[in-house]
């Protein structure tokens, strides 16, 4: 009897210990005030955007730690940043940038023409990733005219180049930095890098000597979660102020209480594409591709696959690009029309297509939906799920498929259809010519040509654009300035403020 | 057979298993379908980048040569190779992650044992009474609960509803000892609850056996109380079988910790493994898998050896054979 009492006592002591440790916990955010905790899923793989690929690095560092001569605002317009203004020569071959006089790096060194030239030379060097180098392909020369003026000479006119300068390819880093930029980023932004606990946390602190509007939060912690549900519970328990992208739209209901959470739903650059292999005999016929476009109820697909969240687009352009045009009604859901087109094409019965999808969150479910709908119009679909490496190897690399579903998340990726060996086997001279003239023309010409190019893809039913991935952000109500649409690769902290 | 000889045979078996495991892991990660360099770099990589990575990782050299170098690096220099993605050495990463996993697993096991011994003994001694049956039934329920499920409920109650403890994440002891404890309580509790159920059932049945032994009856006859006799003679006798169970459970705890680290967003080996798998960083994957498999083999070996040395009955049986 005495023993059992002491056992109960032990349990009580344990419970007391838990309670005590709970009572002594530090109050999370009310007291420290301007600390900001942001939940994210894609962790950087290194900290130097020039030599390490991946979207995780610019998400944290671009515009926050590193600055560019020009930046994208929340509407997707190019605005001055380190360059106070710039001019373009009449032949569209020479850009002259005037730099902000007062801009300096966190080390105190000035952001002068020399630093810009050194940074740009680094981006053009062999050590840069292929995708960074590609963005500099149209540039012949970069030179310092005087301390505050930089001249960039192009080998051919390119609108895309100035746009690319708003991203990782255009960052200006501190030439006086002695440490490796891959472990110790050094820029001129409102935040400085503090530490990176791989697998868990990346911390930024306010740069006290920032030349522009000072940082409003200090410190800022990007917390990483491999499991999106763990991120949700961290938000629910008050450990986070912001979920930077909710990748399980079905769980949005957990944040329905508007007194505690504000939900932002915008667009991303991620087009979920039902791609056709144009070399498959049946799919080389435009009528068959159009029939498939008519046969799939895309609204229904979003509802069943992605919790009803997402935007119908109808071509390879998100609504945030200036040349966006709503083409989502080009092929309304019409199974009868689909059957008609299949009959015209002579494949009304017995057509079997292989749909090979990667096992990413949207792939298999979207695949089953598509297969079921195509069966309704008489197309048999052999559905196959591949893990990502096999998808890359067989579908993307070897073009061994009839249809596939994958999200294309890069900005301005209309040009993917013009790539020489693209995995859709789509080749159209008129389309390629439009892209070239858009890049070389004026802004008006660019918008006009890219609209035509997008329309051409739609008319050709080059693919079936199922939907555009949504950008769902959850924040506590005291955070303001959240950008609904993800237009750049950056999670731009300079736009955020705390309501007090 | 002498003890030394039997230990020698087992060491040979262990070395063979360790070698075979390392070969299979290296084979599997290297012979998976797809060009490893292309897989690592993803869709945005150009042919130049792919070729450069193949060159850097030495993927164009003979398979066996690469295997021998990899294993040699681990055995001679604790060099677990490099990340296929960043080229950074894997060993420091593993060391940092190992610390987190080790705390969770060690505390999980210690608390499980601390709970299991009194609970199991109590259930055995009181097995004909309602409270003993209730305790026994409760541990049966605990047995059926997966650790991650327990973890999710602990988070819902203690983090989301009550707000007493953090829902996840990790703070190093050196940064803040108090925060370190607070972040470990829930993950350790979810592992310990489940482990305690398993171990307490072994304790219960072993104690019941002891209760029927002659020496126990003798102890009672000379005036020891039931609990006292159990403490004095019983626990010593169930120690060996308990050791086996704990060893085996340690292996399952390793696996359980991988999932628990996901639930609580702990930066341990398990979450590093999952991140590496989804990012296809096979350099990290093969290093962590090797470490986990080797740990399990080693634990089993140690249990086996201790068992052989400690239990005289086994020794006698082996000598008779």
TrEMBL record, chain A:
It comes from the Bacteria. GO terms for molecular function: peptide transmembrane transporter activity. Pfam families: SBP_bac_5. Residues 1-22 form the signal peptide. Keywords: Signal. GO terms for biological process: peptide transport. GO terms for cellular component: ATP-binding cassette (ABC) transporter complex; periplasmic space. Residues 77-408 form the Solute-binding protein family domain. SUPFAM superfamilies: Periplasmic binding protein-like II (SSF53850). PANTHER family: D,D-DIPEPTIDE-BINDING PERIPLASMIC PROTEIN DDPA-RELATED (PTHR30290:SF38), PERIPLASMIC BINDING COMPONENT OF ABC TRANSPORTER (PTHR30290). This is ABC transporter substrate-binding protein. It comes from Tessaracoccus aquimaris.
From TrEMBL, chain B:
CDD domains: TM_PBP2 (cd06261). The keyword Coiled coil does not apply. It comes from the Bacteria. Keywords: Cell membrane, Membrane, Transmembrane, Transmembrane helix, Transport. It holds the Pfam family BPD_transp_1. It is a multi-pass membrane protein. GO terms for cellular component: plasma membrane. GO terms for molecular function: dipeptide transmembrane transporter activity. Its main location: membrane. Residues 98-303 form the ABC transmembrane type-1 domain. InterPro entries: BPD_transp_1_N, MetI-like, MetI-like_sf. Belongs to the binding-protein-dependent transport system permease family. This is ABC transporter permease. It comes from Tessaracoccus aquimaris.
């Amino acid at each position: 009897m005495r023993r059992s009492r002491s056992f109960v006592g032990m349990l009580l002591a344990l419970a007391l210990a838990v309670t005590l440790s709970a009572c002594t916990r530090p109050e999370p955010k009310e007291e420290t005030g301007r600390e900001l905790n942001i939940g994210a899923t894609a962790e950087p793989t290194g900290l130097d955007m020039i030599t390490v690929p991946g979207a995780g690095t610019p998400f944290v560092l671009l515009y926050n730690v590193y600055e560019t001569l020009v930046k994208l605002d929340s509407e997707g317009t190019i605005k001055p940043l380190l360059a106070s203004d710039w001019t373009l020569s009449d032949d569209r071959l020479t850009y002259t940038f005037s730099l902000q006089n007062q801009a300096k790096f966190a080390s105190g060194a000035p952001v002068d023409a020399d630093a810009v030239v050194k940074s740009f030379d680094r981006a053009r060097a062999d050590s840069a990733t292929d995708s960074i180098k590609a963005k500099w392909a149209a540039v012949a020369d970069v030179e310092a005219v005087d301390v505050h003026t930089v001249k960039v000479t192009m080998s051919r006119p390119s609108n895309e180049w100035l746009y690319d300068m708003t991203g990782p390819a255009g960052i200006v880093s501190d030439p006086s930095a002695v440490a490796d930029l891959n472990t110790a980023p050094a820029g001129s932004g409102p935040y400085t890098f503090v530490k990176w606990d791989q697998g868990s946390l990346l911390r930024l602190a306010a740069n006290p000597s920032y030349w522009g509007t000072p940082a409003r939060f200090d410190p800022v912690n990007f917390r990483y979660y491999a499991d999106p549900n763990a991120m949700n519970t961290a938000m629910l328990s008050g450990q986070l102020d912001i979920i930077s992208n909710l990748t399980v739209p079905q769980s949005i209901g957990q944040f329905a209480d508007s007194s505690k959470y504000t939900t932002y739903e915008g667009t991303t650059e991620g087009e979920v594409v039902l791609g056709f292999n144009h070399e498959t005999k049946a799919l080389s016929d435009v009528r068959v591709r159009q029939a498939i476009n008519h046969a799939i109820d895309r609204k229904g697909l979003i509802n069943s696959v992605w919790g009803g969240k997402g935007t119908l687009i109808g071509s390879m352009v998100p609504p945030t690009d200036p040349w966006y045009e709503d083409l989502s009604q080009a092929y309304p859901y019409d199974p009868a029309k689909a059957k008609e087109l299949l009959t015209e094409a002579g494949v009304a019965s017995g057509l079997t297509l292989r749909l090979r999808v990667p096992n990413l969150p949207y792939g298999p479910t979207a695949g089953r939906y598509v297969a079921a709908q195509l069966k309704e119009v008489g197309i048999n679909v052999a559905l196959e799920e591949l893990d990502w490496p096999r998808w890359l190897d067989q579908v993307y690399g070897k073009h061994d498929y009839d249809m596939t579903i994958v999200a294309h998340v890069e900005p301005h990726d209309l040009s993917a259809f013009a790539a020489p060996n693209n995995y859709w086997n789509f080749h159209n001279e008129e389309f390629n010519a439009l892209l070239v003239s858009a890049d070389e023309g004026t802004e008006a010409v660019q918008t006009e040509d890219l609209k035509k190019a997008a329309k051409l893809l739609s008319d050709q039913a080059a693919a079936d654009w199922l939907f555009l991935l949504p950008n769902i952000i959850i924040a506590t109500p005291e955070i303001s300035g959240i950008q609904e649409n993800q237009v750049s690769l950056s999670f731009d902290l300079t736009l955020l403020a705390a309501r007090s | 057979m002498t003890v030394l000889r039997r230990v020698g045979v087992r060491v040979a078996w262990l070395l063979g298993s360790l070698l075979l495991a390392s070969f299979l892991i290296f084979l599997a990660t290297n012979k998976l379908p797809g060009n490893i360099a292309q897989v690592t770099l993803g869709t945005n990589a150009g042919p130049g980048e792919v070729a450069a990575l193949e060159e850097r990782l030495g993927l164009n050299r003979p398979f066996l040569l690469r295997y021998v170098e990899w294993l040699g690096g681990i055995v001679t220099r604790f060099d677990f190779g490099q990340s296929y993605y960043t080229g950074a050495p894997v060993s420091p990463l593993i060391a940092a992650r190992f610390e987190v996993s080790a705390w969770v697993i060690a505390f999980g096991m210690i608390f499980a044992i601390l709970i299991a011994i009194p609970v199991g003994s109590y259930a055995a001694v009181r097995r004909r009474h309602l409270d003993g049956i209730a305790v026994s039934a409760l541990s049966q329920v605990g047995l059926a609960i997966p650790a991650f499920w327990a973890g999710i409920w602990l988070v819902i109650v203690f983090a989301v509803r009550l707000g007493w403890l953090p829902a996840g994440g990790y703070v190093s002891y050196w940064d803040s000892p108090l925060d370190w404890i607070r972040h470990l309580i829930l993950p350790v509790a979810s592992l310990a609850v489940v482990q305690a159920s398993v171990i307490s059932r072994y304790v219960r049945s072993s104690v019941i056996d002891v209760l029927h032994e002659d020496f126990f009856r003798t102890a009672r006859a000379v005036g020891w109380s039931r609990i006292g006799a159990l403490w004095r003679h019983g626990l010593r006798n169930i120690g060996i079988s308990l050791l086996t169970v704990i060893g085996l459970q340690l292996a399952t705890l390793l696996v359980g910790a991988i999932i628990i680290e996901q639930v609580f967003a702990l930066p341990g080996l398990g979450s590093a493994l999952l991140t590496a798998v989804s990012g296809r960083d096979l350099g990290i994957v093969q290093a962590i898998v090797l470490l986990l498999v080797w740990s399990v083999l080693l634990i089993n070996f140690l249990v086996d050896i201790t068992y052989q040395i400690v239990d005289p009955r086994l020794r006698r049986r082996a000598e008779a054979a």
